Amino acid sequence: MSLPTVVLSLIVLAQFDASSSSPINEFESLRGCHQFNSHSGYYAVHPYFNTSTFKNIQTDGNGVTRLRIGVLGDKHAAIRFTSVPTGYTASMTEIALAYYDNNRTDIRKYSRSLLSPGAAWTNLGEFHVKNVMNIYKPVMLTVAIRPNGLVTVTRDGENVPFLLFNDPSFSFKFIGFCKWDVPVVYFYDCPLLQERKCACDDCKF
């Protein structure tokens, strides 16, 4: 299923909730985020963003680092974390979100030099959670990285992570995004929920 042009263009989309008789804008959660449209395929070269330049990433007194991202699309999104922006000797940790037709999410670890059809990877987690992604509203995710390599991913509106894995060599210095077979729009450096205090005039999509 392809994304509607109106969604790809991020024209504000409001849905009407008959029960409350008031409009609901599913894109309000994107205020303050940066947008990346993933046109390249799974094996293509794509940009990596330096998280040290992010304004909304936060590390607390316990050394837990949190960042918030959004994903909009039908299925098959790949979120990649690595230690360097270029070069193929570094390892990479990938959240393969809503794969197998939006029925399963895998956590994959492999060398970027092995990123080719038929390459093997180490599976750090397999989560059978259906319908994570939606073409009509973004799924907002808070990624929390602990110093011991424990990583959790929690959706907005939920208190319990739906993804949890351990990767002692996990690096979040750079983050990249790509798709498998259908368009996916990503939103990164999003304000953490407790810090979303900006006025509408100061926020940006």
TrEMBL record:
Superkingdom of origin organism: Eukaryota
Q: Which Pfam families match?
A: Methyltransf_FA (PF12248)
- Signal peptide segment: 1-21
Q: Which residues form the Farnesoic acid O-methyl transferase domain?
A: 45-191
Residue stretches in coiled coil = none
Which InterPro entries does the entry link to?
A: Methyltransf_FA (IPR022041)
Task: Tell me which UniProt keywords the record has, alphabetically.
Answer: Signal
Q: What is the name listed in the Swiss-Prot or TrEMBL entry for this protein?
A: (northern house mosquito) hypothetical protein
